[in-house]
Amino acid sequence: MERKFGANSDLTRSSRSGSMTSNGRPKQNALTCSGHTRPVVEVHFSQLRMDGSYFLISACKDGIPIIRNGISGDWLGSLEGHKGAVWSAKLSDDATLAVTGSADFTV
Q1: What gap in Å lies between CA 35 and CA 74, rounded to an integer?
Q2: Cys bridge to 27: 6, 19, 32, 89, which one at CB 3.0-4.6 A?
Q3: N- to C-terminal Cα distance for the chain?
Q4: How confident is the model over 3-50, as pLDDT tens digits?
């Protein structure tokens, strides 16, 4: 898969650190992320980083998985190359690697 990332994006940093609840856990925020043109079938999150940031990847029937900042929902990049619906997408714990599985019989 070919990685396409925005000019100012970087999977190793976050533009904002997450806020914490009174018990020291990350505050949960509702996100609405536009960008897909077909139904999303899976969303996977990276582990929480020391700075409170994390990332997410979405698998979609449009065949283009999208990587986003988990706090803000900002688009960081798309993985292009599948010729069918993407049924599964996962990030490594540190969000440095991504894997996708598609209806075109490719990973």
Answers
A1: 10
A2: 19
A3: 8
A4: 444 444 343 333 344 566 777 776 776 777 888 889 989 999 999 988
Contact present, 73 and 95 (Cβ < 8 Å) = no
Considering only CA atoms, give the Rg of the chain: 14
b/e string for 28-49 if b means 16 or more Cβ within 10 A?
eeeeebeebeeebebbbebeeb
Residue in this structure with the two tokens 């806020």, named with its chain if needed = 19
- Closest by CA position to 102, among listed 71, 75, 81: 81
Whether 69 contacts 83, CB under 8 Å: no
Number of other CB atoms surrounding residue 89 within 10 Å: 24
pLDDT of residue 78 exceeding 70, the answer is yes
CA distance 81 to 13: 25
- Which two three-digit tokens encode residue 99? 């894997």
